[in-house]
Amino acid sequence: MSTTTDARAAAPLAARTSGTVRIVGSGLLGSSIGHALSALGVDVALADASPAQLRLAVDYGAGRLAAADDAPSLIVVAVPPDVTADVIERELADYPDAVVTDVASVKLEPLHALRARGVDLSRYIGSHPLAGRERGGAISARADIFVGRPWVVCRDGETSSADLAVVEGLALDLGATPIEMSPEDHDRSVALVSHVPQIVASVLAARFVGAADESLRLAGQGVRDTTRIAASAPELWVQILGANAAPVVEVLDALAGDLADVAEALRLPDAPGSRRAVADTIRRGNEGVERLPGKHGQNRRFEQVVVMVDDTPGQLGRLFGELGELDVNVEDLRLEHSPGAQFGLAEISVVPDAVRRAVDGLEARGWKIASTTND
Amino acid sequence: MSTTTDARAAAPLAARTSGTVRIVGSGLLGSSIGHALSALGVDVALADASPAQLRLAVDYGAGRLAAADDAPSLIVVAVPPDVTADVIERELADYPDAVVTDVASVKLEPLHALRARGVDLSRYIGSHPLAGRERGGAISARADIFVGRPWVVCRDGETSSADLAVVEGLALDLGATPIEMSPEDHDRSVALVSHVPQIVASVLAARFVGAADESLRLAGQGVRDTTRIAASAPELWVQILGANAAPVVEVLDALAGDLADVAEALRLPDAPGSRRAVADTIRRGNEGVERLPGKHGQNRRFEQVVVMVDDTPGQLGRLFGELGELDVNVEDLRLEHSPGAQFGLAEISVVPDAVRRAVDGLEARGWKIASTTND
């Protein structure tokens, strides 16, 4: 298993997390944390309201069944948003020596609920790993889903440095980057970059339900990308959106205003500034999308080389083998099929310095380069 | 150039398009049509209002310069939407024996303009290849961008079967699938699957302009996909949206209503049916996105196998080489980097029958399978 061994080299030499970690909730996030900590040699005690789900998580190697005499130093609450506050309260009471964190994707609502009940929150630090997969559940859990992802940690005036270090240590052990943020800033941020995009994709895709087959045949890659996340599961999203309603509504209202402005400009094309209003919207969109961090961080740029590839087994192998011989590392890849054709297009992202080497080397080996971005 | 030769096997044995084809406008679409027809041995005469652009297209092999004594059988108008009607009118007058088509992405506005001027449209058939690239211009032109894509052909009562066959023959020669549609249906369809998604992506991305860096650090792949097309160029889109204003406004208004309904349900979480309204929106989004044709057509489904891959040259080569040995064809591929980690995840789409073979074979060769969709 050479690949595994090599990958593991990215893990820290010595885990910061020690003692027993109790994980309550063995869904995708809880189980993935369990897998990652277990691989680091940490004792992971799993609990779940569902015995079947718990058994599955244990069978898949996320940890052991929690025992009555466990003395965890850290408790991770990874349950659905609507029961997060209840479970945090119970865990704080049951384990008076443990630091308790949660991984819910909304941070203010559980905090308000706990404060309203007068719970002592000095040992609680809310957190949120920005990681996930399209499929949930213990079966989909993967130790690596946190690697390179942000992990928001919400400290407040009551948080001790030692407790903060425990939660940030967990994030670091799992390969994530801890980001300290207030619960308010967190909730506003995820409303903008996650919750509203989900709603937008869903309402747009919902418009296709009543459309003619013929109309949908005209759909291309653009609209497929725009609506991809509309495939997300309703149950979890109803909870998330409900728990973060105020910040979500704020962005939705602003967005509805922007859409109304575009509609107005299109309705009255001869009104002063109408064309300009439409152009400005597209231009601001250009600017906004440029600000999103890329797969390799905000400022690193790759060039694309598009290669024609036969749609037969082994062709991609030959292509990537030869790129390896040319010492060209593939940073990203997008494979485009031409339905009905016997070939596809492989769009390969490489560092700018490697474009010439890749193009010349591949052409010399008989590949057809369809295009490159820095010609 | 074995790859090229194999790919060419997908081209028709005998081109339907014959004689001289005059292409007016040597941007991305005009030049790409020129490349494809030239490769089929058709005589392509190029014209463009910009001598520099024209020279570039000729240099890149899209065709020859048009001559005064050309007698084209088919004229393709591939100019920006705002001058499309003017150019169609002029070409019909200048070449009284030619069939004239255009490739503008809006079909009703030029038709209305031409009818209002009393132009005899018996030799004009509007069309629209649903093909494009993120970059425009003759430099980005590619002969293969039409392969497998729909090409809408708008016949009307005046259209002769012989003329229709010429335009549909062009589409077929370029590897596209002709779809007959009324101009009204076409414009409504592209409003839904192309123009409104563009606006939605742009207004959403525009919201990031004023956001804090810290907030945007929380962005993941979902919002990146949702806003990817916000990177499109403003100039062309202002023209397209302006030319298709009524159908676009209709969808925008409906969408704004849908967004307002979600906002209302979130604002009044305890009102009867509020949670259900949010769930229904997500659920209808699930249903709508399922209706979009996939890369291989609407009904074919692939399974995904996710493999951990070292982020070093040659690793993907080894992976794809071994998949070839296992006789597994890679239908699609998504490469996910974990920034800061020494490895990435290759999500490989394969036909369901090949999942077991791929997983067992790769594991036997030491690869770590992170997950599969049909476990």
TrEMBL record, chains A, B:
Pathway: Amino-acid biosynthesis; L-tyrosine biosynthesis; (4-hydroxyphenyl)pyruvate from prephenate (NAD(+) route): step 1/1
A UniProt-annotated Pfam family: PDH_N
Alphabetical UniProt keywords: Amino-acid biosynthesis, Aromatic amino acid biosynthesis, NAD, Oxidoreductase, Tyrosine biosynthesis
Enzyme class: oxidoreductase
Catalytic reaction(s) noted: prephenate + NAD(+) = 3-(4-hydroxyphenyl)pyruvate + CO2 + NADH
Domain Prephenate/arogenate dehydrogenase intervals: 19-296
Domain ACT: 304-375
InterPro entries: 6-PGluconate_DH-like_C_sf (IPR008927), ACT-like_dom_sf (IPR045865), ACT_dom (IPR002912), NAD(P)-bd_dom_sf (IPR036291), PDH_C (IPR046825), PDH_N (IPR046826), Preph/Arog_dehydrog (IPR050812), Prephen_DH (IPR003099)
Record bears the keyword Zinc: no
The EC number(s) this enzyme carries: 1.3.1.12
Family matches, as PROSITE patterns: ACT, PDH_ADH
SUPFAM superfamilies per UniProt: 6-phosphogluconate dehydrogenase C-terminal domain-like, ACT-like, NAD(P)-binding Rossmann-fold domains
PANTHER family documented for this protein: PREPHENATE DEHYDROGENASE, PREPHENATE DEHYDROGENASE [NADP(+)]
Similarity comment: Belongs to the prephenate/arogenate dehydrogenase family.
Protein name per its UniProtKB record: Prephenate dehydrogenase
Source species: Microbacterium terricola
